[in-house]
Amino acid sequence: MASFKPTKIQVYPKLGEKVTQDTLYWKNYKAPVQIKEFGAVTSIDFSPVTPHNFAVTAFTRIHIYGPFSQEPVKSFTRFKDTAYCGRFRSDGQLLVAGCEDSVVRLFDVSGKVALRLFKGHTKAVHLTDFTSDRYQILTGSDDYTCRLWDIPNATELTTYTEHTDYIRCGVTSKLNRDLFITGSYDHTVKLFDARVEKSVITMDHGQPVESVLLYPSEGLLVSAGGRHVKVWDLLKGGQPLVSLKNHHKTVTSLALSSNGQRLLSASLDRHVKVYNTTNYKVVHNFDYAASILSLGLAPDDASIVVGMTNSILSIKHRKNQEDSKEIAGQQRRRPSYRVFVKGKNYVPKQDDYLVSKPVKEHLAKYDKQLQRFNVSKALDTALGTYIRFRKPEITVAVIKELDRRGTLKNALAGRDERGLSQLLNFIIGNLVDARFTPVLVTAAEMILDIYQSVIGQSPVVDRQLLRLQDLVKREIEFQKDLLEVLGMLDTMFASSLPRKESASASAPTVDPFPTCSLNTDS
Amino acid sequence: MVEHGDIRVVHCGGSKINFRDPVITHDSRFLLCASGEAVKVFSTSTEECIHELRGHTGLVTGVLLRPSNHLQVYSSSLDGTLRLWDFTDGILIKVGQRFQLVAVHLPQSGDQMVEAQELSAVLSGVNPNPAAIAFGRGGEFIASVNDLQLEVYFFKKQKSYRFFLKEDNKKGGWNTFTCVACHPKDDCIATGHEDGKIRLWRNFNHKKEYTYSTLHWHHSTVSSLCFTPEGTNLLSGGVESVLVQWRYNQESERDFLPRLGGAITHITVSPDGSLFCTSHSDNKITIIQSCVKVSAVIQGLVKGDSIRTDLMMDPRSKALVLNGKPGHLQFYSLQRDKLLYNLDIVQQEYIHESGLQQFEVVKAAFDASGSWLATVEERHQKAAELELNLKLWAFDEQTQSFVLNTTISAPHDAQITAMCFCQPTDSQTTLLVSTSKDGHFKAWQLAAPAHTEDEGPSWLCDFVSAYHGLVPECCSFSADGSLLAVVFQEVVTVWSPSTWELLTTLSQPPGAVSDLCFGRLSCSKYLLGTTASNLLCWNLLTCSLEWTTSMDVRRLVADPLSENMAAFCYQSGSTDLFVFKPSEPRPLFSHKAVCSGKVTQAVFAPREEMLESCEESSQWLNRSQLYFLTHFSLITRFLLSPLKLVIDDSVAMTPFYLLLGKHRQQQQETALPQTSTSLLLLFFPFFSQLLQTPAHVLPSTSYLCSMFVQSLLISAHAEEEMESEKEEEDSEEEMESSRSKPELAAAAATESDTPALTKAQARELRRVRKLDHSWLAGLLDS
Q1: Is B410's CB within 8 Å of A516's CB?
Q2: How far apart are CA A255 and CA A213, in angstroms?
Q3: Which parts of A372-458 fold into alpha helices (H)?
Q4: Cβ atoms within 10 A of the Cβ of A151, count?
């Protein structure tokens, strides 16, 4: 006697992204804290020393936020015009910022008034940074020049005039006090050595460069501009390594995750993308409400800070390790588990006599009803609240099984107003789901056949039938539109594909998935 | 049939075991059932076939235990003989020749034939189904049902009563009788009906005052009924495949045994009532203990309505694979004539209801190493669209069975016409190509998981293509996997699987190409195809037609181990076999009229060890054997399709036969005087009997030796003894027949005209048998 074979629940491929280690890691952030600034947030810089405060440059102010506060710890408001590029020194004591009025200001983090003013540029200064020996400042300006300044006496040391357009970004080497890199709207990225008069390496990015970033080892350089993010090998004399084109608008900001394993890029298309730096594949994606101008990542990825054009600053803090551990610990302590495994790991001794017990197989409730040929009850069980809403595939599988047995009509018939409206609700909710359509269309037709004599007797059922009709009409329109789009795409592909030699055979169309039928029944 | 001296066609198994009621012996140790032209003896505990009682030349139509000696059994056959066997040793005891008239009158069933001899005047127009006749209460009456009529004939009164039912009752049920059973102790007849009702008739010895009660549980036809020997229970079964046990006189209490397999066709109970056994329509016999618990299952080759998957060989187990019970693939061992196991493809509860559309396995394919199996199942409903599933199974080394790897629902929009695996020699990637009636063919490839967290590799579609909107009919990979040929009606397209480029097209109108085969080994440059009227061979190097022959090839099979090909041609009602090499113009072997009817399924099975045959015409059988499936329609109601095997005659020689043959030759050579020829005569029956008897029942050699020597000595005293014994036995037989049921009278009558033997032969036979008995008795005493 063969045992009863339970109803086969169709396993549908999971739609959307696959869950990977990366998605788990990057999803492990709390809900973002949103802070309204006075204007578009153009720059975010984390202090290299604990407690890792960060400076946010927005409009004419620079705010410094603590790691957990939602209010600024400190504000610098002495700017006559829009401030740019507030950056900490490597000891976290000093802060430098450029301004639209071409004056570069140096602040003490604890003070309020500028310690030094560096005047010499003729146009807005978008790039400021400290060199690694802490005594010099690099600035880049819209007057096409970049300069090195001496901090103690606020004098200009060198001027480089190699760029032919605005200089909007740059970075100094953390290992060598004489090296720095600038990116310009003339599409080039230049590496300068302060010991010589000229740039050492010039790299052509191809688009106006918005951001540059050095790897911690400083062997690789990342530049962003236009829709491209490009990686250059500095040790090979600026050879291009990879070109990434994953955004569909200008990439504005770059950041490296603290261990250097992941690269983040933010763009005007409102996405932040996370790349794996070994194969440069996108492993995760963040969505934001507005175009992103600046991006900052705290050490150890403790928080992600994003500044947007709508002057919103969004801060995401990482979830605490202890919290998640505690939840897992609670689950392990659940007493029922011990009861469940009790005696299961007992190994019989040598002279024990083993009495085998037939393994009782577990059947789901609807299967038990199906086994007894109680078709209506089986359908009722499968229409239970939990299954209906959480696992509609089970309900559909039971309907399919009943149809296979030729008893679906019997199971659907003989329902009262409540039962029928419940059934119709389920059908309305799932009919247009492509996975369930073929099964549910049959069921819907049967319901209409069976209950056509009682139409008009119950306002609830009538309303639902009208909704069903409306739904089917809309779906048909939608599918028509889809077919039209498909036809348009086909003509576009056909015209763009080069003609092959083997044109005698109809052009092979690569279709990795069997298409499900598009037409629905009225 | 034998045209060539050394090659002949042999029926090798797969016959039905559910054709007639099986019989359980008195000690419940053995089960006997008719199986094709033989009677098989199974052990009820181990499910093994112990003996095959061979000797009939026609279909065996009935098996019955001899009531006087429960170690013997009668069998009847369509060849017109009735044979008596000793089933414990598997020895033929007697052959009875029936009257030809009887064979013409009622050829279907053994016991019916016997009845007809006695009662042909009283019972006319009986149902050809043996379930429609039953003896009641120690043979006092006989009940027969036909259509809407129940007829009871009392032997003593020589009178028959007829009862009629209306054609259908008000609820629309059908009252037609299907089977009948009589209570062993009581005056009660149970009849089964087409609407699933069982009627218990009482008081049927009155024309008017008869009564009946109705039992109803079955929802469709009751096909078999049986009372237990004590009459306490009634067993019934039908299409639902549920054995129902009703308590006699307490009909509300029932026991059920559900999901036994196919529809129940026969139910029998052992004489002591301890075992039931049910035969099923899927060629299965289930042995059930009286506590309604299955104890053993004897499964034969399942032959459904049609073999939609072709015959295949499993490369690992060397088993024949074809679709069996609904939704299953069966693995059938050709060597042992035994079903190894069924692989559940559909994995759905089978609903036993006639007229319901079920999932059927329609296509299956193995890859070259047997590590992958692809199956296609489909369900075609009238209104709804076609449901198709393509499943890929991986062989699991640990469990030694196939495990489902990937299910692709709706792989094509229409039915899949053909499917084949690529047989790569070096590369690791496995490729599957399926062609469909939707005009496309698709290539499926084993793809590594996209993410490391996934369990393992699964199959994905790699390539889709079509050719001018024509329907692809079949596909084939070349032996090295470098070429794929797909047939689009009249056009053969050749593709390169590595780049998916169309390399060339071949066509030879008129007629669509129906079968396609690449040559192998030295003939790998040839591509063979068949059309309705021609056999075509293309040379792939020149892309031109090499040769063509006009013949109606139904099936083209390539030997996987050599370059030989076998073509089955249908010509004027019978099938011819040609074996040829594509490179040679003359066939290696041809056999006219292999069988009548069409051969649509055939397969080459590799031999376990290679033969060394030097004859040219039989060389093609050295490495593999050719099996094919035939469709015989003997009686309009049955479709019998035994498997046939083509083998060399030399293989059929058993060691014993060789020994015997040598012995005989030596004796003939020595040209013994007259006395020794008579010695030969008496020597051989004993010798052969000695060899036929199973070794475990033989007494010790020393004991046999003296007997053997004794048998060589003929004394006048012994002959006299023989004569007297013979008379005694005859009288004994007469007594037996008078005691037993009427059917035995016939048996006795047939016994009297045994085939004419010479007197000396008969005497010696008798003597040897006598001897046989004596040592058997000795054995029993010890």
Answers
A1: yes
A2: 7
A3: 375-382, 385-390, 392-404, 408-412, 417-430, 437-451
A4: 19
Nearest to A514 among B294, B410, B463 (CB): B410
Q: What is the DSSP letter of B301?
A: -
* Smallest Cα distance from B385 to chain A, Å: 9
Tell me whether A336 touches chain B (CB under 8 Å). no
Count Cα neighbours of B270 within 13 Å in the Cβ-side half-sphere.
Answer: 21
Which stretches of chain B sit within 8 Å of chain A by CB? Answer: 257-261, 294, 344, 347-349, 351, 353, 356-359, 379, 384-385, 407-413, 450-451, 453, 460-469, 493, 500-502
Is residue A392 reached through a cis peptide bond, with omega within 30 degrees of 0 on the bond before it? no
The answer to whether A79 touches A52, Cβ cutoff 8 Å, is: no
Residue from A129, A172, A122 nearest A144 by CA: A122
- A3, two tokens: 């045992």
Q: And the tokens for A44?
A: 């975010």
Q: Which of B419, B420, B549 is nearest to B478 (CA)?
A: B420
Residues of A in contact with B501 (CB under 8 A): 502
Q: Is A2 on the interface with B (CB under 8 A)?
A: yes
If 0-12 CB within 10 Å is exposed, 13-18 middle and 19+ buried, where does residue B501 land?
Answer: middle
Chain A partners of B410 at a C-beta cutoff of 8 Å? 514, 516
Instruction: Please count the residues of chain A.
Output: 522
Query: Which band of pLDDT confidence, cut at 50, 70 and 90, is reported for residue B129?
Result: low
Q: Is A503 on the interface with B (CB under 8 A)?
A: no
Cβ of A404 and B351 within 8 Å?
yes
User: pLDDT tens digit string along B337-358?
Assistant: 778 888 888 888 888 777 778 8
In chain A, whose CA is at the least distance from the CA of B469?
Answer: A506
**A1 vs B257, B344, B493: nearest CB:** B257
Residue A75 CB contacts under 8 Å (≥ 6 apart), including other chains: A61, A62, A63, A64
Taking CA atoms, what residue in A is nearest to B293? A1
DSSP B166-181: -SB-TTS-B--EEEEE
Distance CA B255, CA B522 (A): 65
Distance from C-alpha of B756 to C-alpha of A312, rounded to nearest angstrom: 115
Q: Which two tokens stand for residue B446?
A: 């084993």
Q: Which of B619, B546, B545 is nearest to B579 (CA)?
A: B619
The two tokens of residue B660 are 């015997």
Give me the long-range contacts of A232-238 (CB less than 8 A, separation at least 24): A232/A189, A232/A203, A234/A191, A234/A201, A237/A201, A238/A191, A238/A201, A238/A202, A238/A203
Decide the pairing of beta strands A188-193 and B60-65: unpaired
B382 to A399, B355, B357, B379: CA distances (angstroms): 18, 11, 9, 10
By CB atoms closer than 10 A (0-12, 13-18, 19+), residue A71 is: exposed
A19 contacts on B by Cβ (under 8 Å): 453
Instruction: Give residue for tokens 């300044």.
Output: A149
What digits encode the pLDDT tens for the residues A479-503? 999 999 999 999 998 888 776 544 4
CA dihedral B570, B574, B580, B583 (to 10 degrees): -30
Per-residue pLDDT reduced to its tens digit, B380-402: 876 667 888 999 999 988 888 89
CA-based nearest residue to A143, from A177, A184, A173, A109: A184
Angle at A12 between CA A11 and CA A16, to 5 degrees: 140
Q: Work out how many CB contacts closer than 8 A connect A with B.
A: 81
Closest CA to B567 of B609, B525, B600: B600
Work out the minimum CA distance from B447 to partner chain A, whole angstroms. Answer: 12
Give this complex's ipTM: 0.73
DSSP alpha helix (H) spans, A181-320: none
Average pLDDT (B140-159) is 80
